[in-house]
């Protein structure tokens, strides 16, 4: 029986007309450039929740079916699906284990594939990359990557790449990308760009999506609107423990509901348990998941706090988000500010040789933190619950929410 994450990405999930047209465009592009002497790249852009992964899952399934058909132009091609996210890779390999024509070994992390191909002096035909904004853009010796850029390394090994890219989901300096950076890197290659713009994940009114985009974009704190709760459960909590209890209740009712948090609380990969404490609320951060089941689908993780690293790319039914110490209200009470001194995720902000200017690094830290908030706010299909650590922001949001409830 398929779990919920696998169902979401199954190639048998019926695509929308926009998604189906995009899949056909991608297949035409692959066939047209399969034998070019220089690599070609098909780029799919779109915000979180617009169905990019669904498109890639169906596309790769179709390519592999064609590769197994002896009369197809794709016959006997060697193709790989890549994602630089261990939790999401588990989902794709679970899919491969359930469907004919798909092999688990066709789903790889980029570093593993690059190192193996280089060691054997081999190449491949088509690479499909989900979450390409998570590709390394500098060496990472700790993870055995000694090249300068994942994407450049892969372009040396294949004929065609199909990638999805969302600049708002860049989360670490070692995977630091912007759309301009990507365009400059791809300038020498044949390329085609397409965009997905319809929000599929959240059953939310466009006004709530706009509120989130302003919160994490220009950092403007727009007024809360009654329309936020049309077909969607949006709530502000002044008490983190009460938010946890509400999430536990929703998890019992519909499943796949979790507490998640931004940075701002101690967390190190030392094998120990590190707790987030907010008043009566006290839960440990998520632990490294050594199982084949994604973190969000392990029942016991209802008693943990998820991070961006365990939740990115996944649908939750309900998400309770703790806006940690770096997320504050501005002095005038109108905008969000990011206090970079409160960031505790040191792994995300390791030194880059090409980013030595302190103002550039500071701006990048602010942007990456806002990106993470955007991703976490858009995890919930049915509902989003918020709690803010900063007393001024908590009071502002609670007052706005109280005003909203009085209107109703």
UniProtKB/TrEMBL annotation:
Coiled coil: none annotated. This is AAA+ ATPase domain-containing protein. Pfam families: SLFN-g3_helicase. It comes from the Bacteria. Residues 38-175 form the AAA+ ATPase domain. InterPro entries: AAA+_ATPase, P-loop_NTPase, SLFN_3-like_DNA/RNA_helicase.
């Amino acid at each position: 029986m398929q779990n919920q994450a696998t169902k979401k990405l199954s190639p048998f999930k019926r695509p929308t007309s926009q998604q189906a047209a995009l899949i056909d465009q991608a297949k035409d592009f692959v066939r047209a450039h399969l034998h070019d002497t220089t690599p070609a790249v098909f780029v799919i852009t779109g915000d979180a929740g617009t169905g990019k992964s669904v498109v890639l899952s169906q596309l790769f399934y179709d390519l592999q079916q064609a590769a197994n058909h002896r009369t197809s132009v794709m016959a006997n091609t060697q193709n790989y699906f890549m994602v630089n996210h261990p939790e999401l890779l588990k989902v794709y390999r679970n899919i491969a284990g359930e469907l004919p024509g798909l092999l688990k070994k066709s789903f790889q992390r980029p570093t593993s594939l690059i190192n193996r191909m280089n060691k054997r002096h081999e190449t491949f035909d088509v690479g499909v990359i989900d979450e390409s904004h998570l590709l390394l853009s500098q060496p990472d010796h700790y993870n055995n990557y000694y090249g300068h850029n994942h994407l450049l390394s892969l372009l040396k090994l294949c004929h065609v790449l199909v990638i999805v890219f969302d600049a708002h989901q860049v989360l670490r300096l070692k995977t630091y990308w912007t759309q301009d950076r990507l365009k400059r890197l791809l300038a020498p290659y044949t390329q085609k760009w397409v965009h997905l713009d319809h929000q599929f994940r959240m059953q939310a009114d466009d006004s709530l999506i706009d509120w989130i985009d302003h919160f994490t974009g220009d950092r403007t704190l727009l007024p809360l609107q009654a329309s936020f709760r049309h077909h969607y459960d949006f709530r502000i909590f002044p008490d983190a423990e009460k938010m946890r209890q509400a999430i536990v209740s929703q998890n019992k009712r519909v499943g796949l509901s979790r507490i998640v948090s931004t940075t701002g609380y101690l967390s190190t990969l030392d094998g120990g348990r590190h707790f987030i404490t907010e008043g009566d609320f006290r839960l440990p951060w998520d632990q490294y998941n050594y199982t084949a089941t994604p973190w969000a689908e392990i029942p016991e993780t209802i008693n943990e706090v998820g991070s961006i690293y365990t939740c990115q790319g996944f649908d939750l039914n309900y998400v309770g988000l703790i806006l940690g110490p770096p997320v504050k209200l501005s002095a005038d009470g109108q905008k969000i500010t990011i206090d970079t001194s409160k960031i505790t995720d040191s792994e995300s902000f390791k030194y880059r040789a090409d980013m030595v200017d302190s103002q550039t690094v500071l701006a990048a830290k602010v942007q990456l933190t806002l990106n993470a908030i955007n991703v976490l706010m858009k995890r919930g299909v049915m509902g989003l619950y918020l709690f803010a650590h900063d007393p001024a922001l908590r009071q502002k949001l609670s007052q706005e929410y109280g005003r909203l409830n009085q209107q109703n």
